[in-house]
Amino acid sequence: MAAPEQTELLEADPHWPTTRTSVLRDAIGIGIATGAYGLSFGGISSTSGLSVLQTCVLSLALFSGASQFALVGVIGAGGNPMTGAATAALLGVRNGFYGMRLAGLLRLRPRWRPIAAQLVIDESTAMAIVRESRPAARLAFWATGISVFVFWNAATLIGGLAAHALRDPRTLGLDAAAPAAFLALLSPRLRRREPRAVALLAAGVALVSVPFVPTGVPVLLAAAVAVVAGVRPTPEVPPDPAGRPDQVPA
Q1: Which of 91, 176, 221, 242 is the most buried (most CB within 10 A)?
Q2: What 3-state DSSP class applies to 221?
Q3: What is the DSSP letter of 77?
Q4: C-beta of residue 164 within 8 angstroms of C-beta of residue 45
């Protein structure tokens, strides 16, 4: 006999078993792809001067690929660790925007929010916001976040230990795995003209600003473009005299 929660889900979404299987399959696939990216980080971090233990703690505590690469990149280039930390913090600001979007979508109980906050990343956010129901969004968020967390940290350890055998992991193209996975998640959101225009404008602003601003700021400028596009007032469509509110009179 099905549990009450399962019965409610089936009533709300008759295709729930298929949805659940699809979400879990995609979450595991994203975790594996991002894990390959973690191999690159573990190797680069260790060759930048951090110990294997420091590298693993960084992945466990910070758990933000772009921020982690920014931090070890500055350290590896001989920069001040505080400068690297500031750059990592700038790149991590986008997760705050993600959190605001997810708070209203997931509506988690207070006791789960500190754990969920650690899993607010590009992949878990993208997987959650494309779902058509709250249960599916919650499952996508938790499954993707946990999958990426497990594979990312395991790969960080392996990459750190193998750093001496593989001096430059980027030669295998592992550093492109996570961006490619995120673009694959983003593509379904770009089928309409307006999201495509916003994405192109944000990317253009980021690319143009790269030579003129510190590392991490182009990401914030691109995020600002998306935020402005999201909060701008939408013109109301006047109702049609024939009773079809979706039609605009000439």
Answers
A1: 91
A2: helix
A3: T
A4: no
